[in-house]
Amino acid sequence: MEGRRSCTTTDEPTPLHTLEPMRRTVFNRVFAVVYSSAILALLYHHGQTLHHSTTPVSLFVSFSLFVSDLVLGFMWITQLPFRLLPVRRKEFPENLEKVMKREDYPALDIFICTADPYKEPPISVVNTALSVMAYDYPTEKISVYVSDDGGSMLTLFAFMEAAKFATHWLPFCRNNRIVERSPEAFFGSNHSWNYETDKIKMLYDAMEERVKHVVEMGRVDDAYINSKGEQEAFHKWVDGFSRQDHPTVIQVLLDNSEDKDITGDLMPNLIYVSRQKSRTSPHHFKAGALNALLRVSAIMTNAPIVLTLDCDTNSNDAETLLRVLCYLSNPSIRSKYGFVQFPQRFRGINRDDIYGAELTRIFIINSLGWDGLMGPGIYGTGCFFSRRVFFGAPSSLLSPEIVQLNPNNVVQMSIQSEAISALAHKVAGCTYEDDTNWGSKIGFRYGSLVEDYYTGYHLHCEGWKSIFCHPDRPAFHGNAPISLFDVLNQSTRWTIGILEVAFSKYSPIIFGTRAMGLLMGSSYAHYSFWPIWSIPITTYAFLPQLALLNGVNIFPKVTGLWFYLYMFLFLGAYLQDALEFMSVGVTFRKWWSDQRMWMIRGLSCFLFGFIEFVLMSLGISTHGFNVTSKTVDEEQSKRYEQGVFEFGVSSPIFVPLTITAIINLFSFLSGLVKIMGGSDVEELCLQMLIASFAVVNCLPIYKAMILRSDKGKIHAKTIIVASFLASALYMAASLIF
């Protein structure tokens, strides 16, 4: 395998990149053997206990623990592929010009998706676009396409303003060698101020004020329209135009063949696209928007490299594209490796990352492990694709329905020519995909709410490999949710999406294993079956505690050998997890927050997402795509910076968490009373340990229930409902035990 050696992928004296296995590989493999043996021993113990169960209660308890530990074992085993061959890459962009002239750099099409100007403020989307328009790269080779799936004139206006500001911003970044090329990030950081900086800041503030004022009004007044071309563009918003039903709108805001900045250098292309929507035609959410951009961009520029970005993912390194070329500039690599994925990194994360928003396990640790196999999946943003990857397997090009969409087609006409405009409008139509391979064999794949995971999975099944690029300086910075409700709402959507894959005909456990092999199939299965974490988490959050409340012992005594097996499995898993986090620079407190959020998700979004998926499968419920809000409340932001949990929304998703907190607290106190009253400590030890561990993790919930008076506390209604259900659960357990 590629990852078994330290190497460069070129024989040139000036290497563009290197690859080497990580030092923890041997330890991971040895520990995998030992820990797997311990799991088998525990399952054997459960089997013996089940066999000797003589009462319905003991049978129920034994079976529940057996199923829970079987799920834990399955999830641990499917995580092994990430640990067997972790590798680390390094790029040398400074060597690129030694082997390739700048004029020979390939063109780049950048896709930025937005859908709601109120949940995703246009000024934030503008900052994302400006940051990549200012890449350290020949500007005439960059084309930025903004997909506005909400069809909002407010977003179009914001980008008209951005196009004007960009003529000042790009030369400012270039002449001053600015690293953070998002204006918002640059002006919010520590840097030296001078007359030129003050001037560009005034221009930005003026633009920001106009954009925010238009959004507040909800319309674009004539006072803000400065030309006949702008006026004609806004005339497309007529009566009957809505976000669910409107014609295609494509507006070229900057043309790199004629538009120049204030210093006389050519500007990148900047194109606004709002595909046609109709209530009678499926639109396939973000995947549909990306496929529309794939087709529109193919008609207008057809660059061989495509970058996809979320609306709030700003470039944090002007040389990122050069790092990508360290791989994709090599034809032999480009023929096998379909995309280069950067980890998602976030700005504004508080000290302890209380919501585990960095998702270090997924975006970094597991990605380093995946990179030693076929490479990481797609994470929805910060991914550079070879356009060819969307059109069939590496060995067989799947030709699209018209030659202009072929990834090898060379566009000869101006992007503003009538022929190009007419064809671009056609391929963005809501019925264009009918009776074609789009979404099934070509482009981003339909069939799951998590189009990034699903598309990456299919590309790997087709034989494509990928590369994980993790430089010391983050390539991109996004905005993480700062309220628990937004985090859980987003995770619920992911839960439904990955379950759609897990229980489809393309299930990774069967189809994926056949197509990619056991290791890659298992790794994708680990993600697709993620929601089943809710089974052991829910079981261990309630069953031992309810038994303890009723004075029933369900675990081995401290003096028994099986007790030490339980302790080894618990401590072994947690210590390995903590060491892996710290090996990539994560603090202990952030790791603790991550494991706490794993339990919170298991009791909330995994559980609710699983239930909604089952109801949807039975035809009882349907779901839609809810955009995660990117707006920020000042008080909420202040509480987040202080590390205070935000429960300010009254939602059923908080009820199981509150019940868990109540049951575990009373269980722990009950256990203490029993021990002080003379009960056998050896019998209650494991149940007391589990209850105390849960109580420590529930501390933010107790504070939000009892000690806080701010708007972020848990609603009284939630506490009342949870208290009633906890009492009912206790009484039911009393009858059973």
UniProtKB/TrEMBL annotation:
Chief location bin: Golgi
Binding positions for UDP-alpha-D-glucose per the UniProt entry: K119, E120, D149
SUPFAM superfamilies assigned: Nucleotide-diphospho-sugar transferases
Annotated Mn(2+) binding sites: K286, D310
Signal peptide positions on this chain: none
GO CC aspect terms: Golgi membrane
InterPro entries from the UniProt entry: Cellulose_synth, Nucleotide-diphossugar_trans
Function: Thought to be a Golgi-localized beta-glycan synthase that polymerize the backbones of noncellulosic polysaccharides (hemicelluloses) of plant cell wall.
Alphabetical list of PANTHER family matching this protein: X-BOX TRANSCRIPTION FACTOR-RELATED (PTHR13301)
This protein's name: Cellulose_synt domain-containing protein
Organism lineage: Eukaryota, Viridiplantae, Streptophyta, Embryophyta, Tracheophyta
